[in-house]
């Protein structure tokens, strides 16, 4: 990969470690590097940049302004396009940083444990381009809520699909529908940039209905072609609060000759916990109608065991923050193992999200996870490309 054009800033109070970071960046071919010894100084320099740098590497533990405060300023003031956290951060904390950053349209590429090495740096910088082919114009939030409403009405908000496979036999048994905004100019906008706006502007129901509709339409198409897979659809918190949602979802599914049993509705753990009382009745009704219910991003919310066992979930998805690199990180592995244990005791199917490497695949297979989803198997693709993607997939040998 050529990083000639990448602009990177290093914010690190430790002189030696800062020089190492700068040297490694130079070795990787990054020509435009800014360096700063503390957060406050970094803010001053960033505010003077005509164009925000592509990536800022931020050390979390610094005197004066620490890394979290630094990232929060960068996010608020749009001072960079993405950040990398340099620290052996636990995934729950990284998730907090990610959620905070995402709300302002800033990407967190990931975290890197010290000492920094060339391989670690290269792996995390590779993520900068991850969405590049997919989202040529990403991170430019040059649209209004009205543009989004029009996009929904014009069918520009569509579902892309990411395959899910069984660890036991490597078979593709499902796909998650992920929202993409395909703009008329050919660019594709990621959901983190527009889903929060739709939710804020009262269009959460319209989005969820649209995605369910899309997933059903494609499922019907694949069913006819002989590929029978389950479909998972993300449901917004706001949609959960509307009692009429259960009947609407049933009507959408049935209008495509699909049984609710073949659809899985994903609800994030944090959503369920904040809207628990209101959402519970609806979840119970959806379950009664036969829909599968999945608890998404498990490990990042604050569910108590008592709470979890009360809700009629059928599936638990372990957050990718705990999965990526789990084979080499005992703390992540411990969270994954405990989640699998809990899920299986409650009779839930387990899905690991963010399976990127063969090493993680092997570890997850060994400890008894049921289903894998992640870049190792395939990235999200437009519906028209899913069958080809499934055809390319080969299960790693155990
Ligand atoms: P999510 O529901 O947790 O979806 C999984 C995200 O992880 C997707 O990002 C997917 O592309 C990404 N991913 C999958 N495998 C890997 C992997 O191996 N490594 C890494 N690093 N990432 C992986 P995407 O499509 O950008 O979606 C981001 C989030 O936007 C979703 O997170 C979900 O919370 C939200 N979202 C997407 N579609 C919808 C939707 O239709 N409705 C609602 N309410 N939210 C949606
Ligand atoms: Ca999901
Ligand atoms: Ca997730």
Short description:
Helix content is 44%, strand content 20%.
Structure description:
This protein has 398 residues and is α/β, with parallel strands linked by helices. It has 2 domains: 3-133, Rossmann fold (3-Layer(aba) Sandwich), CATH 3.40.50; 140-392, TIM Barrel (Alpha-Beta Barrel), CATH 3.20.20. Helix content is 44%, strand content 20%. The chain has helices at residues 15-27, 39-48, 67-77, 91-102, 118-126, 145-153, 191-200, 204-224, 237-240, 245-255, 269-274, 276-289, 305-310, 320-323, 330-345, 358-366, 383-392, and strands at 7-11, 32-36, 55-59, 82-86, 107-112, 157-166, 172-182, 188-189, 230-234, 263-268, 292-298, 315-318, 349-353, 371-373, 381-382. The strands form 2 sheets. An 8-stranded mixed barrel has the order 6-7-9-10-11-12-13-14, surrounded by 5 helices. Strand 11, helix 13 and strand 12 (315-318) form a beta-alpha-beta unit. The chain is globular, with a radius of gyration of 21 Å. Mean pLDDT is 89; it is low at 133-139. One calcium ion (CA) binds at residues 296-297, 317, 319, 353.
Keywords summarizing the entry:
single chain, 398 residues, alpha/beta, Rossmann fold, TIM Barrel, 8-stranded mixed β-barrel, 5-stranded parallel sheet, 44% helix, globular, binds ligand C2E, binds calcium ion
Shape: globular
Q: In which order are the strands of the major sheet placed?
A: 6-7-9-10-11-12-13-14
CATH fold-level label of the largest domain: TIM Barrel
CATH superfamily heading of the largest domain: EAL domain
Number of domain units: 2
Number of strands: 15
Number of helices: 17
Largest sheet: 8 strands, mixed, barrel
The span between the termini is 30 Å
Task: Identify low-pLDDT runs.
Answer: 133-139
Q: Tell me the name of the CATH class of the largest domain.
A: Alpha Beta
**Beta content:** 15-25%
Q: Tell me the structural class.
A: alpha/beta
Cofactors, ions and other ligands in the entry: ligand C2E, calcium ion
Question: So, CATH architecture of the largest domain?
Answer: Alpha-Beta Barrel
